[in-house]
Structures are given as structure tokens and as C-alpha cells.
Amino acid sequence: MADILVLVEHRRGEIRDITFEMLMKGKTLSEKTGKPLTALLLGNDVGEMAEGLKDLANRVVLIEDPKLENFNSEIYQRVLGNVIEQEKPFLLFIGHTAFGMDLAPTLATQMKAPLATDCTDVMVDDDQIRAIRQTYGGKLNVEVRLKPAPCSMVTVRPASVSVEDYSLAGEITRVTSPLTEEIASKRFLEYVEAAAGEVDITQANILVSVGRGIKDPENIPMVQELAKSLGATLSCSRPVVDKKWLPKDRQVGTSGKTVKPTVYIAIGISGAFQHIAGMKGSGTIIAINRDPKAPIFNVAHYGIVGDLLKIVPALKGKISEAFA
Amino acid sequence: MEVQKEGFLQKYDLYGCFQCGKCTGGCPVSLKSKLNIRKLMIEALLRDNLGNVVQREELWDCTTCKTCTLRCPRGLEPMDLLIGMRTLLVEEGHIPKTAIEALESTYKYGNPWGAAKNKRSEWANELGLKVLPQGDQASNLYFVCCTAAYDTRVQNVARSLVQCLRQIGYDFAILGNDETCCGSEIRRMGEEGLFEMLMDQNIESFNKYDFRSIVTTSPHCYNTIKNDYAQDGLDVRHYTQVLAEAVEEKNPFSGEVRKVITYHDPCFLGKQNGIFDEPRYILQSIAGVTFIDFDRSREKSLCCEGGGGRMWVEATDQGPRLAEIRVQDAVEMGAEILATACPFCLLTLEDAVKTTGNEERLRVMDISEILVEAL
Amino acid sequence: MEIIVCIKRVPETADADIVIDRTGRDIEKGGLVFDINEWDNYAVEEAILLKEKYGGSVTVISMGPEEVNETLRRALAMGADQAIRLTDPAFEGSDGYTIARVLSQAIKPLSYDLILTGVQTEDDGYGQVGPTLAEILGIRHAAVVNQIEGIESGRTRVHRELEGGLEEILDLELPAVLTIQTGINEPRYVSIMGIRKVAKKEIKVLGLRELAMKPEEAGEPGSLTVVEMVSFPPVGEGAQILEGTMDEISDKVVTILKEKGGVA
Questions:
Q1: Which residues of A touch B114 (CB under 8 A)?
Q2: Which of A21, B344, C110, C208 is 20 to 30 A (C-alpha) from B36?
Q3: Distance of CA B329 to CAs A21, B349, C74, Å?
Q4: Range of the domain at A254
Q5: How far is CA C109 from CA A143, C44, C103, in A?
């Protein structure tokens, strides 16, 4: 059928944003190439979810099985291998998420499919697939060509596609689960929530956020002071948590919290996509970084290029005066 | 951790210790830290497993001010024992995370501040200094120091010093981006191998060029080049020595500074190298200065807690920082400027001025900065 | 417990000004500082911790030129027992799949219970080599692991880091490939003395022939994806850069904060 296939990502009964982003990208490519767009939904008792997706694809392929209750890459791979054999899709989209990172590489290898991971854009010209992905922490764009193959795969970086409203009025096709025996080699046991911290950064009106550029934990109090002068909450990027300079509940980004404060001040944060995905919805973003090419300046509204150790104290002084 | 205990004991001559306690008695951090150097000496001797002796956080409280060693009546070297113990921890790899960052940065970029190697001489961009690796020649080499090169506060000291050296007609050049960390703090954090590597790199640089002597910003660089490198024919001087000599000959700093000034002796300059008079002489030679000395000064001077890697390792103790005590003392005796001649002292004392809320009362300045005001 | 760790030596570019090279397909690497890929450092530490707990040995494998020995020696100094370097001009231009393919050829003859890799690398950031390797070897895998609870009767319980502070716990059959997330442990310091102690340790070097591979199976010919060109990301609308003295910049920020609100 040579469809463009989008693997629906959902967790605990909720469709994840990446799904809509991939469908949006898929729809654009579908219009260009004339290949139908199909959403592929695996799960247990997810009929309602399928209904909700009908408008966003030409077709929703629904496979239900109690064994698909929770995500398990091995079980998914077994089912998807089957679907790909039957459907012979032209291109399969999977999210570059914890879900996709566990699944896409092994599935692609099994299907001998070229795979481009963590893509921010995908182009198709005369059936030639090209993808844009970033390297060196977002400092470089790389254009990758996928060698011709019966089926190709791409994992899509979260928050790299803006979603618009559209309606395709698709229909639901139920496919019987090919799963027979239990797969015991990899077993999902349970979810665990990271321990709730003292601070809920998602509720803050203003966030002052520090990153790796702070260099030394002794400089954190200085930023804390700045936050205090603004009545803001202190948050941070992943490296600061990895170094144990601030607790996990302060972390902004895909593996931490997604935040949308009125004002977000990013200090010494270069702007890895995992971080940007967690804060780009903020009202006003002000970034301080010494590298004028830091990706954070692409999403920031205002930028200050320079040494944060000089800027932060100066800023704190002025702010204390202004908002005393 | 397995350690060849016997060799360790002999290296530090631990059998010679008779537990008089003069070392701990003089230790500036022992009052507030669990660190007890006398006990470490005996435990190293008696306990079977040296590995267990060194597994204690307070080992990182030591500032390597060397008071213990200087006071030992038997001529033993308790400070070196402590550094030796840190060396065991470093080789094992389990040391404070911040220390790891400083050491890895020094290995990769030649400075403990995590800054790019090719930006080392940015502080001097508009000064038109001579740079030896660029083919310039000079009678003397100015060894800048990582902290003076990168720390935005201390950069001002380096720039002031350049002004002072020019004022006295001192012919000098820098190594530019080829200068690498002297290794003083690296050695004192127990990373002996990295220290040796840095020393070799610096000596190789020194040998490439023709100059009479080296002048340093920092007493730490000065001490390590003089006493740790200990190369024959390598003349190294702290800048206060160079400036004091010039001032004595013909004082070119004729301006006035109408201030009450006291001076904090950096341990690595005073206690460890006996340079007490030169800094005082310079300050007293400035017109308008009223000089007062601390009660605890010269050999008895109180350490600021900036040495021995403590710039990168937070102490375990909860007591007041010694730098805060120093600042309070300075304020109480009516000083307006607390002068010093060491980048670490400058930073720790300036922090202490802020944490004690004395910003309005006391300024912390390097001697070179005060001299610039007297230009 | 026999553990293999696949590591990579990468240039540090976070603070560096990067320049696109003449081929237009990569960056100039001269002048950059190289170090072990951050994720891999956690993977090596995790392997050493497991060895300390369960006994056994750790073998580190890396691909690349002679300079990679430095990175392998660093891992040996951390406590790894053997090191293997895979090198051949034919490897140039390998994509994530082909890198896994080459690694698998080196790993097949070895005995192992666990293979660790970093989740991804700081340079290419494929995030695919570990799981691909598992598929080629026909063993289990888990990606983005931020905790290994323990190993018992041929199985392991691991935590995978999901989005939004959520984790899932999996139970896996060994042998398995785990891709290790940063923050899972605190990598130990590697002293220069430690590196010197392992300076004479043999590093096994294997090329295309030793790995029983044909040239067309490696590098660009063996790859399923090909880098066409690299470019700097478009700056987009980008930030309005505030300029002036510290005071002027600070004043501007205050004005913005007043306008955009938020300040109580």
C-alpha cells in the first residue's frame, strides 16, 4: 500500500503530543507524495483512542491485545514486524522518545530498514527520503539521505513540528493481534513516579533557570538571589541535576518538567532540545549565554551574550532597585 | 583500598611523632572541623588498614596553610602526610565531585576553572603585552595564574599589576595561551601525577625562552615554582618583591591614597616563604595611607581557607568561615581597605565582606590595585 | 558477570566555536579537546560498580584511530580489565547501524552477560547503536536505563527513564544490552597515576579482516543512511540581543520584565 505510517505513542490512557506532531508531518508529506496517511495504534482497549484519531489520518489501523496494555519494545516489535510485512509502508514514523528509542533501532534492524533518528524535519522527493537531524548538541544541522529500501523509518524529535487543525475523516481498520504465546524475555513490571519534591516549578509565574554554564555549585546562590529579587522560582537544566547541584524536582525538560511560566530566564543553558522542549511555551524567554551561537538564542525572545558571573550580579542589583 | 602501609609510614617519618599536639593546636580549621592532624598521624601508625583511616570527608577541610608542619618540633611534615592521604583517595577516584571537575578541567584545558585554553590571554587583549610564543623578547616572564587569567574579579588584579610593572619600567612578557596551570592546588588536592604533568609542561615552556626571572601574581604559583619545581637557575619572584625593590629605589607611585589599610598575609607568601615585609613596605610607602596591622599577623596570620584546593571543595564544618572572622577583625579595628596579595585570599575575603554585610565599610583590594590608585 | 562496554571518544563542542570542514559533511576537529562521551563515562562506571558487586570482568571496546587508546586507557584506569580498539579506513562514514554491525563482529566471539553503552553520543547523537547491537546479536535490550536494581538468576531488573519524571521498571533476560543514562551514578575520578599504571596494558587492535567483514559491509557502502551535508541551524527569528554596558543591559531587562509582567 506504500502508506506513510505513524506509530501512535500513548501512555496510561493518554495519547502523547509527539503523536500529533508526527501525524502533522505525515499529513504534509502525504499531500506532497499522494501516499495515504495511516495512524497505527497498538494497545489494550483503546477503541476510544482510535475514534479520536480518525480525523487526523486517512486510516487508523487498530490492533488490540491485553498483552499490549503497557509499552514493551519486544512485544511491539513482534506486532509491528507483522504489520510492516503486510502493509509494506513507504515510511514509518516513530517518536524519538523513551518509547521510540527503545523500539525503533531494533525494529529497523529486523526489517533491514534505513533509520534516521532524532529528526527535526523529513523531506521526500521522487520517493527519495531525506531527513534533517542535529548533531553536536544542536550546534549543527545534518542532512541525511536514506538509501532506497522497501520500508524506511524515521524517529521524530519531540516538539519539532507545530501542529495545526485539520480533518481527514479517516476510518478505523481492525487488525487481529498476531501475538500468541507470552513473551517473557522482557517484562514490563510497573511505573514509578519520581519522588515529589518540595517545589512545583510548573506552578511558577517566573522561573530563573540555571544550566551547565554556571560551572561551579558555589555560583548557584548568586542565581538564587536573583530569583529571590524577582519573586521567581529557581529551576535548572539536566546537567545541573546530574551533577547533584540541585534536586530533580527543579529540572526543566523532557526528562523533567514541562513549564510555561510568564517569564523564563535561562542562565548558562545552551539549549539542548530536551531542555527547549520543556520550556519553549514560556511567555517571554530571556537567555544569558557566553556563546552567541548557543541554540537557546533561537527560542529566546531576548538574549544577552556574555559572562553570567558578571551579568547576574548586575541584573540582581538593578532588579532589586526596580522592584523593591 | 589496599595501601603499602610500611612505605607510607616511612615516607612521612611517622615513627618520629611523639604526639605533642602542636600541629593540631596551630591548625586554623581544627577548631571547627573534625580534622585532627595529630590523630591522623597516630592512626596512620596504629590502624591496620590505612584505607579506612583516609576515608573521611574532613580530609578535604585542610587548606594546606602549612602551620602544622612549621610548628612541628620534630621537623615532621604533617601537611604532606595529609596530602599523601588525599593522593590515596585520588588514585582510588572517590573524591568530591567539585574536585573532580577542577582536576578534569585542569587536565583538559590547563586550568581548574573549566575555561577554554584558547581564551587564557583574553584578559590582556587590549593591553599590547609582549607574548613570548609570538616571538617577542623580554628580560622577565610574567606568570599570570589561572585565576587571574579567567576570574573576572581577579583579571583586574592582573591588569593593575601590568600597569604597576610598566610604571617601574619592568621589561616583561607573558606566555599567552601557552601558560598552563602551575599545579600548586592540584598537588595539594593529591593529584600528584597531574601536578607532574603540569610542571613538565611549564618547565618545557620556560626552557624555550630566554629570560632572567619569573614574576607571579599568585603566591601559590610563586611557591610551587620556587619550592615544588625547584629548578636550578630558575629565578622566581612574587610581584610584591619586585615592586618593593623598585619602590625602595625610587618610588614612582607618587599619588595619595587617604585610607586606613590593613594587610592580610597570604599563607603561601608569608608563613610558607617568609615574605612579610615587602607587602607592608609597599603599602606604607604610599602617601596618605594609615597602615595598621592585624593582631594575628605575619607568622601568626589566620588562614583565609582559600588554599589546598578549597576553592573547589566545600568544607564539612559548619563554623564561621575564617575569612569572615578576618573581615570582622578588620572592620573592628577601623580599616577601610583590607589589602592582600593573593587571588584566592582576595576572592574568599571579598565573599566574606558580602556574607557579613560589610560592603559599605570595607573594601578588599590587591596591593597592585591600591598602587594603581596611587599612580 | 562478564560485562562489555562500548565507548566513544568525542570532541567537546559545548563551548567551542565550530567550523564546517572542506568536505561540507563534518566539522574541523583540529584544536578541539576530546574526551570520553559523557554517557559512556557513566556506562563504564556502572560496569565497574557491577563488577565490584558481582565479580567478573569488564571489557571496553571503542572504534577509531590511535588517539582512542587514550580513552580506552582511561577506562582501564577506572577498573576495566581488557580493551579492544576497532580501526580500519573502511569504517569511515559508518552510520549508526553499521557502527553496531562492526561492534557486533568484535563482540560475537567474546563471552558476556551484559553489554553497556551510553544512551547516545555528544557528537552524532544517534541513540541507536545499543539497541541495534542487541538485535544483531539476538539478545535483549533496554534503552535509557537510569537504575540497575540487581542481577539474579540470569535476569536483571532495570529502570528506564521516561518523560516527565516517570520511570518504568523492567525485568530482562540476560544477556542484554543496556543503554545508560547520565546521572545513574557518580563516575569516579581517573588519576594520571592511575592512567600511568595501565600505560603498558595491551590494547587489542582489530581491523576489517580480523572482524571477518568485507569493505562493502562497512563505512558508507555498508550504511543505510548517508550524510549529505552539514550546515549551521537557521537562526530563525532568534533572540533580540541586548547590547551595551552591564548597567544598560540590566536596565533593558528591567524594562522587559515590567512590560511582560510576571513580577509580583
A1: 215-216
A2: B344
A3: 64, 12, 48
A4: 201-322
A5: 36, 21, 11
Based on the domain organization, do A136 and A205 belong to the same domain?
A: no
Which is higher by pLDDT, A95 or B49?
Answer: A95
- Interchain proximity A216–B312, CB inside 8 Å: yes
Q: Indicate the number of domains in chain A.
A: 2
pLDDT of residue B58: 92
| pLDDT of B54 | 80
Provide φ and ψ at B367, rounded to 5°: -55, -40
pLDDT of A85 over the 70 cut: yes
Average pLDDT over residues B52-73: 92
φ and ψ of A157, to 5 deg? -65, 130
> pLDDT tens digits for B142-197?
999 999 999 989 999 999 999 999 999 999 999 999 999 999 999 999 999 999 99
Q: Alpha-carbon distance B4 to A306, whole Å? A: 50
CA atoms of A253 and A242, how far apart (whole Å): 13
Name the residue facing C228 among A73, A144, A244 (closest C-beta).
Answer: A144
Choose which CATH entry (3.20.20, 1.10.8, 3.40.50, 3.30.1740) describes domain B97-244. Answer: 3.40.50
> A174 forms bridges with which residues in the sheet?
A62
Does the pLDDT value for residue B98 go beyond 90?
no
Do B97 and A244 make contact, defined as CB atoms within 8 angstroms?
Answer: yes
Give contacts of A310 with chain B, Cβ < 8 Å. Answer: 152
For residue B95, the chain C residues in CB contact (below 8 A) are: 189
Shortest alpha-carbon distance between residue A45 and chain C (Å)? 21
CATH of C2-222, one of 2.40.40.20, 3.40.50.620, 2.40.50.180, 3.30.70.260: 3.40.50.620
The CATH architecture annotation of domain B250-373 reads 3-Layer(aba) Sandwich (3.40)
Which residue in chain B has the smallest CA separation from A243?
A: B97
Q: How near does any CA of chain B get to the CA of C192, in Å?
A: 5
**Cβ separation B193–C188 shorter than 8 A:** no
Residue C263 has pLDDT above 80, yes or no: no
Of A190, A286, A322, the CB nearest to C169: A190
Q: Which fold has domain B5-92?
A: Fumarate Reductase Iron-sulfur Protein; Chain B, domain 2 (1.10.1060)
**Inter-chain CB proximity B91 and C191 less than 8 Å:** yes
| Complete DSSP assignment for A44-72 | SS-HHHHHHHGGGSSEEEEEE-GGGSS--
> Is B152 in contact with A244 (Cβ distance < 8 A)?
no
Facing C256 at nearest CB: one of A112, A290, A302: A302
Q: Among A244-253, B185-194, B313-322, C140-149, whose mean pLDDT is lowest?
A: B313-322
Q: Measured between alpha carbons, how far apart are the two ends of chain C, in Å? A: 58
* Domain ranges (residues) in chain C: 2-222
Tell me, what's the pLDDT at A197?
A: 66
Residue B100 near chain A (CB below 8 Å): no
Kindly identify which residue of chain C lies nearest to residue A103, measuring between CA atoms: C131
Query: Is A62 within the bounds of a domain?
Result: yes
Instruction: Inspect the interface and report whether the beta carbons of A143 and C228 lie closer than 8 Å.
Output: yes
A137 and A207, same domain (yes or no): no
